[in-house]
Recover the amino acids of this structure.
């Protein structure tokens, strides 16, 4: 199955290609979402649509990353009747991934498993886990 | 042969302006009337090709006169003359059978354009 | 069975069969409450017959068989209306439900549910009813009632033309011009579907002077053109023949297979097309985005040289007018009668009342009133819920009512009416009313309010406690207060669409729930304010006024800053604190605008950094996950492409963990 491979900081991650609608250059500024958690970057507009964007680095490590450099890419997920963007550092490309190994001890519901892409380790993300983590980042009490 | 027009307006001044416009446009004004009652009589007598009809006049207003004329001659071509702000009355006149309207103060090209269209010459 | 491809008729089958079945159940309930007339039963029979016929045409054998059995029973009832009793009514309703389940199965592409036991019951009931001996008057018409009145063949109708006209912009009285053209065309035949409406044409309110009308006439195209050409200042933009709607399979079993589509079911007096509701949603989205795009063009033009800009602005103004017109039309197309909700109520009322041993008369009024589809959709469940509560907990059992000197049969009235730009929907019962003292006691027990607050709580607020989240879910309240669970969900749904809920209740006399609803949800007038680096929109309807003052001069009440507003004193809050967003450093001695807004808790003054102006915007609903964010009611995109959140002003001052008072930090 083909996956989109991208970097968050220096770490390599993967999402199934059919879960990704498109990748766009991150906007210069976002509109802040009140009350939202720190992993919520804000909302951006894309062709008139309002797209919430989540900083994947913060969502994954649940701690402030050392001053996220400006720029980056927004990976837009393919979801029915709604939009969600993930801010990542860079998108590397599309690669086939056949085998995903469950990590020895599951650390996060965001992670589906580990794999190797071109001799390098990559973490395959779990779409559902991601979705519910995002929902709780927005939901304020 | 030039078309025969009856001009109905309670103001002599306005009738003169309209008459001049028609004369310049090659129409022949065969009669004038200063109120609705007179208009109906003149119409029966002259059988003009077209009538320009003021809306607000003494004795019988333009809408009633139009109705009366059309009762006698279903094919009569009556063009209303109205001022801005009389839209509702004009529409009433159109319901009554008026074929078109011109807005006062009349401008020659507008009046002739409307009249020619009504007479199928435009 | 017919050999032709039925799949393209499936959606039509679903919608028409559903309509028949809904009508059947509705009429049956009405019949139960009124007199059983031959005509009424005849009508039931015809609905069943239609569904059976359509199912037959589609080749749905199980549905056809079930429909046939129902038809048999109703046919028998026709001859002996005196035998029509509750048992029969129940059976007919069950059959109706089963048929509806079949239609739903078709829609979902699933197999038909088994209806064999029900069919056996229908057969048994039919056999147990012996044909009457006295012929009924309607039976004297020997011919069996037909599903469809035989329509005039297509060719007998005069052709219909769609005519688009333009009234010249220079016309002195464009409304009269348009009206004249309309009248002239009307002299040629019959006019239909003037768009915009004739009233708007007469008022001269035409975007770009354009309007269109359909004309059914035997005149030639040339004659139509000539007629238009005789009206000064009006030009013919286009004329085209309206294509006849596609033929629909007729609902008859014995139809020759060779000509499947040469008959039309019924005849519509006004031609309509069915449009998928999703398509309407998309239209609205697109029209909304067009408005935004137009604003974007205007914004981009600000950098231009003055001459070029004014030229551009003329075009943008015109474009904006056109797009706005389009948007209005789309909104109009989305208007849906409330009957979509209320039509289901008689049946629901009957079921609930029977289950709970209540006797109910349901009165529905004003179901023709129209609302935006999105609102109607959202209200379906809440209204049903209010009805259920009214019957379950409002209206007393018959014996109790007798004791109280009330008629044993309770009345529930659902009425809808327009009140200027709002629609009022009321669910009113003549039941036991609500016990506000008990509500207050329980609210205090549960820590929702303090005993002090309870003492001073006005009646209407006390009643609204029944819709407070912590209370309405408490089952103990259910019967004490005369209200059931889930009232908080009702309140939330109503507010979600921009409406308000009001409760009026008198002990022993009854309760009224009043929903005040906006006609549409799409456009909203905003006051834009800035806070720190952010911009937010406050709905103008909720803004009571603006006061410019310094934080230092604020008075204090119980240690909290308050602002004098008119005759009253209102609490003053930092908007940044309420939203939990960073504030700009401010000087307590510098003047600052305080926007006084109407919240659920009363008026509150919000300190903001600056007022940025007023703007009419297209409201976008918040989708997951943004709908989870407290304090927001929607979002819009400004001309500069910047998204701006619209604040949920009604609840902006709801207790928040970190809310700080104004003037606290400097």
């Amino acid at each position: 199955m083909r996956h989109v491979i991208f970097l968050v900081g220096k770490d390599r991650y993967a999402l199934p290609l059919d879960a990704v609608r498109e990748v766009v250059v991150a906007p210069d500024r976002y509109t802040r979402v009140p009350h939202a958690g720190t992993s919520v970057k804000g909302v951006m507009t894309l062709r008139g649509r309002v797209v919430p964007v989540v900083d994947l680095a913060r969502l994954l490590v649940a701690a402030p990353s050392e001053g996220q450099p400006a720029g980056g890419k927004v990976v837009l997920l393919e979801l029915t009747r709604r939009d969600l963007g993930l801010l990542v550092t860079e998108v590397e490309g599309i690669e086939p991934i056949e085998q995903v190994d469950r990590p020895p001890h599951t650390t996060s519901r965001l992670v589906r498993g580990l794999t190797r892409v071109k001799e390098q380790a990559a973490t395959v993300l779990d779409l559902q886990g991601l979705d519910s983590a995002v929902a709780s980042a927005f939901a304020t009490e | 042969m030039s078309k025969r027009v009856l001009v109905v307006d309670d103001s002599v001044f306005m009738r003169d302006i309209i008459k001049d416009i028609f004369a310049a446009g090659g129409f022949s004004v065969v009669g004038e009337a200063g109120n609705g009652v007179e208009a109906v009589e003149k119409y029966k007598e002259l059988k003009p090709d077209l009538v320009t009809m003021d809306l607000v006049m003494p004795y019988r207003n333009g809408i009633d006169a139009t109705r009366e004329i059309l009762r006698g001659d279903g094919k009569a071509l009556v063009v209303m003359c109205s001022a801005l702000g009389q839209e509702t009355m004009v529409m009433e006149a159109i319901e009554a059978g008026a074929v078109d309207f011109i807005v006062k103060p009349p401008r020659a090209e507008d009046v002739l354009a409307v009249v020619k269209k009504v007479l199928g010459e435009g | 069975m017919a050999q032709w491809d039925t799949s393209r008729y499936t959606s039509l089958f679903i919608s028409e069969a559903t309509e028949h079945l809904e009508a059947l159940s509705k009429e049956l309930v009405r019949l139960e409450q009124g007199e059983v007339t031959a005509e009424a039963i005849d009508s039931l029979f015809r609905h069943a017959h239609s569904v059976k016929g359509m199912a037959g045409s589609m080749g749905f054998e199980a549905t056809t068989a079930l429909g046939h059995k129902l038809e048999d029973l109703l046919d028998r009832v026709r001859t002996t209306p005196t035998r029509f009793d509750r048992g029969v009514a129940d059976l007919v309703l069950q059959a109706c439900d089963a048929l509806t389940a079949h239609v739903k199965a078709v829609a979902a592409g699933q197999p038909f549910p088994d209806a064999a036991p029900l069919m056996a019951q229908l057969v048994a009931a039919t056999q147990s009813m012996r044909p009457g001996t006295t012929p009924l008057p309607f039976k004297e018409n020997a011919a069996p009632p037909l599903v469809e009145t035989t329509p005039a063949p297509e060719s007998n109708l005069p052709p219909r033309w769609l005519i688009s006209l333009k009234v010249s912009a220079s016309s002195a009285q464009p409304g009269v011009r348009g009206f004249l053209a309309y009248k002239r065309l009307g002299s040629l035949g019959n006019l239909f579907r003037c768009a915009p409406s004739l009233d708007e044409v007469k008022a001269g309110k035409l975007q770009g002077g354009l309007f269109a009308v359909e004309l059914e006439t035997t005149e030639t195209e040339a004659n139509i053109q000539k007629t238009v050409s005789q009206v000064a200042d009006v030009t013919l933009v286009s004329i085209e023949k309206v294509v006849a709607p596609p033929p629909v399979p007729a609902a008859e079993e014995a139809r020759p297979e060779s000509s499947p589509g040469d008959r039309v079911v019924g005849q519509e007096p006004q031609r309509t097309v069915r449009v998928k509701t999703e398509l309407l949603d998309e239209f609205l989205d697109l029209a909304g985005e067009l408005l935004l795009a137009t604003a974007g063009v205007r914004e981009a033009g600000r950098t231009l040289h003055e001459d070029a800009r004014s030229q551009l602005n003329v075009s943008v103004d015109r474009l904006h007018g056109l797009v706005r017109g389009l948007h209005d039309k789309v909104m109009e197309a989305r208007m849906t009668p409330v009957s979509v909700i209320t039509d289901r109520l008689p049946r629901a009322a009957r079921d609930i009342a029977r289950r709970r041993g209540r006797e109910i008369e349901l009165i529905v009024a004003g179901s023709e009133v129209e609302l935006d589809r999105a609102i109607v959709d959202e209200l379906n469940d809440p209204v049903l819920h209010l009805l259920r509560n009214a019957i379950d907990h409002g209206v007393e059992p018959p014996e109790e009512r007798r004791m109280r000197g009330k008629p044993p049969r309770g009345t529930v009235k659902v009425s809808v009416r327009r009140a200027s730009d709002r629609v009022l929907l009321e669910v009113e019962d003549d039941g036991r009313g609500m016990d506000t003292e008990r509500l207050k006691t329980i609210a205090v027990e549960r820590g929702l309010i303090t005993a002090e607050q309870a003492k001073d709580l006005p009646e209407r607020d006390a009643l609204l406690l029944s819709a407070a989240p912590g209370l309405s879910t408490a089952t103990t309240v259910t019967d004490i207060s005369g209200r059931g669970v889930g009232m908080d969900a009702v309140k939330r749904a109503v507010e979600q669409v921009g409406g308000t809920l009001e409760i009026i209740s008198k002990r022993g006399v009854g309760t009224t729930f009043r929903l005040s609803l906006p006609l549409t949800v799409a456009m909203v007038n905003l006051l834009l304010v800035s806070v720190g680096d952010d911009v937010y929109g406050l709905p103008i309807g909720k803004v009571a006024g603006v006061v410019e003052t310094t934080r230092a001069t604020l008075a204090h009440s119980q240690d909290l800053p308050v602002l004098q507003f008119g005759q009253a004193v209102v609490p003053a809050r930092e908007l940044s604190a309420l939203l939990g967003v960073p504030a700009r450093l401010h000087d307590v001695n510098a003047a600052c605008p305080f926007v006084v807004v109407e919240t659920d808790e009363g008026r509150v003054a919000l300190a903001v950094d600056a007022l940025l102006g007023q703007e009419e915007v297209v409201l976008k609903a918040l989708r997951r996950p943004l709908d989870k964010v407290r304090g927001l009611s929607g979002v819009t995109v400004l001309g500069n492409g910047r998204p701006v959140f619209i604040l949920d002003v009604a609840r902006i001052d709801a207790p928040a963990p970190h809310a700080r008072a104004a003037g606290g930090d400097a």
Notes: Chains B and A do not touch (no CB pair under 8 Å). Residues 4-118 of chain B form a domain with the Rossmann fold fold (CATH 3.40.50.2300).
